[in-house]
Amino acid sequence: MHVTLSIFFRWLHVFTACVAIGGVFFMRLIVPIGLATLDPVPRKAAFLRLRRVFKMVIHTSILLLLVSGIYNSWANWDAYNQIPQQAQPLWGTHVLLALCIFAISLYVLAGVEPPARHAKLMAVNLVLMALLLAVAATLKYAREHHGFSESGIEIRFQLPHLEVEH
After folding, report:
1. Are the beta carbons of 93 and 135 closer than 8 angstroms?
2. Gyration radius (Cα) of the chain, Å
3. Do residues 98 and 132 lie in contact, with contact meaning Cβ atoms separated by under 8 Å?
4. Residue 13 CB neighbours (<10 A)
5. What is the mean pLDDT of residues 155-162?
6. To 10 degrees, the CA torsion angle through 134, 97, 61, 69?
7. How far, in Å, CA of 126 to CA of 28, rounded?
8. For the whole model, what pTM was predicted?
9. How far is 108 from 118, CA to CA, in rounded Å?
10. pLDDT, the chain, mean
11. Quick check: 83 and 142 in contact, CB under 8 A?
């Protein structure tokens, strides 16, 4: 059961992150180009309708990322404790970036009308998401390879095999 849950929550976390990142990319870079040909009144109406649906997607994504992230952290905590000098700063950075992204998203999507700087804030969020992916990939590598050295050469820790006689 633990293996099935681990696979499910890992999949859920990655899938949800893909949906959120793709949604931000689409809303920030694609939608403005698509709406540019419309007159101001229908452009605003279409944008606000898209924003409302996007808000529901992001709110759901935040919930699923929190739940799956908590489970994944709990499931991998022993592995992180084996390489605390590398895993703890990466894990902390991962969590801090995620919380910043959530806060910006919730702020930008609050209310019916977006704040004045919503486009810039979503661009910042997109950059933070890219940084978060880099941190998460590094953390996963460190966890699966039992750490890494400053020169990039893999370090594997192996305890000597001891024979115990009875």
Report:
1. yes
2. 21
3. yes
4. 19
5. 50
6. 80
7. 9
8. 0.84
9. 6
10. 90
11. yes
